[in-house]
Amino acid sequence: MAWFALGRILFVAVVAYTASILQPFPFGQPANIGFALALAALVVFFESRLRETSITRVLGALIGCAIGLTIAHAIVSGLFWADTGNRRVEFLHSFTLIVLPYLGLVLGAKHGEWLEPARLLSLFRASGPQRRYKILDTSVIIDGRVADVCETGFVDGTLVIPQFVLKELQLVADSGDSMKRNRGRRGLDILQRIQKMSGVEVTISDVDFPEVREVDLKLIELARTLQGKIVTNDFNLNKVAQLRGVEVLNVNELANSLKPVVLPG
Prior knowledge:
The protein is about 65% helix and about 10% strand. Helix 1 runs antiparallel to helix 2 and helix 3 runs antiparallel to helix 4. By secondary structure, the chain is an alpha/beta fold.
């Protein structure tokens, strides 16, 4: 963190020094330095927000913006026969050069997860049965019974551990409350146990949804993206996910269904 802070301070100082030397506006040196500081603060703000965004979304936004700009330039070049002196034609050219890169930026950022290596490779693979993803939430990891189910071989497909779930587990494990701390450490131990099992494929997903704050809603969005199922024992998450069209595997329901039926005699 100290290196990030030092880098930001140096960046702001360089921008202010450049503005004081070049003085791009005829308002005097203090006004130019003030403008440069405001501009540098705006850049630092955007940089701090970009740090919370996955690299695939940033790349998707840049690629989408470049494609939109290329299409807009081609359209404007194709309208060479139009009267460029007409204000309406000039506005149409400017609007095209603005709106298409913007649409490319937004759409590229929204679908940036397709730039992940696994997604890119799937485009070139022969059509066949898709991988089945089971996404674990924090409660079912701390519960621990999912490890026993995995050990028996009843769970197929790939177990997905989202990075934001790991972060939540770490926060619980570092809690000042001893009970919460023990639960968090138990969850981390359960994950290590699952990873060491033979025949169980476990992957850590870096896909995040910065615009979504609640972990449960992030899980639902990730399940939609991967077309997978959420493994949980949280009753509320179970209901919300079903309302949003996401399949859920509830460990509590599995345990209830396995209770032996006792008959007289």
